[in-house]
Write a structure and sequence with these properties.
This protein is mainly alpha-helical and 240 residues long. The chain contains 13 helices and no strands. Helix 11 packs across helix 12. The longest helix has 19 residues, at 33-51.
Length: 240
């Protein structure tokens, strides 16, 4: 259920982001959590309601998004999840242990698509449709390291890429990751934050306000200690 809900949320954000002007998207989906949830549910209601000859109405009116091509990816992911339900219900009715649930490959496939875009489509300076997926994937330990590595490659493209990252609302997610004790995330987080802080004054202010600078100070202190002990990175000629 949680995975299904996460996929629905990601798909709704992707469709809204590609269908609405950025100012409208920011006002409806990034300034208030309750309003954002209401608008995402409206989008899903429009998709389901249209097939039942019901037309949900919003005020102010939003452009129709029920025929967006990204719904095809959602339909496939939903069918893959729901196809496992009959076997589980049958086992439950017969008193047998249900077969294990096979997680969807939706998020892994979206990250692969984003990786392909970084290799072949980044020159156009357009927003990749997979960028909103990173918000949800950063919450998952399964794909978090890969998502951070790809996000680092994206912000390295320049100021326009950092602006897009902040516009889709990734800032609170990467700020929260500074509380993670996972050492394998530190290098990627440092690079991403260095790019964001260098190009966005408000991000620097928010980082300092929330005490994020202490994370970098601690990392640099540990790195200095490692170098002093001889555990840090060595130059190519150190072993000769």
């Amino acid at each position: 259920g949680r995975e299904f809900q996460a996929m629905a949320s990601v798909m709704a954000v992707k469709i809204q982001l590609s269908s609405l002007p950025r100012a409208v998207f920011q006002r409806l989906f990034r300034q208030d959590l309750l309003l954002a949830s209401l608008c995402r549910n409206f989008l899903l209601a429009e998709r389901v309601g249209r097939s039942l000859r019901v037309r949900p109405v919003s005020l102010p009116r939003l452009p129709p998004m029920h025929h967006h091509p990204l719904w095809d990816a959602w339909d496939l992911a939903a069918e893959t999840c729901l196809a496992q339900l009959p076997a589980m219900l049958e086992a439950q009715a017969e008193g047998r242990p249900p077969p294990p649930y096979v997680p969807s490959s939706f998020f892994a496939e979206q990250l692969t698509a984003f990786e392909v875009w970084l290799s072949h489509g980044a020159a156009g300076r357009t927003m990749p449709e997979q960028l909103p997926v990173l918000l949800q994937v950063l919450l998952s330990q399964t794909h978090r390291l890969r998502a951070l590595a790809l996000l680092g490659r994206f912000v390295a493209l320049g100021a326009w890429a950092v602006d897009l990252v902040l516009s889709v609302g990734i800032f609170p997610y990467i700020l929260k990751l500074l509380q993670s004790p996972a050492a394998e995330l530190r290098t990627a987080l440092l690079f991403i934050w260095a790019r964001v802080a260098a190009l966005d004054r408000q991000a620097r202010h928010d980082l300092a306000r929330d005490g994020g600078h202490a994370y970098f100070a601690a990392f640099l202190g540990e790195s200095s200690s490692a170098v002093a002990r001889g555990d840090g990175p060595r130059s190519p000629g150190d072993d000769t």
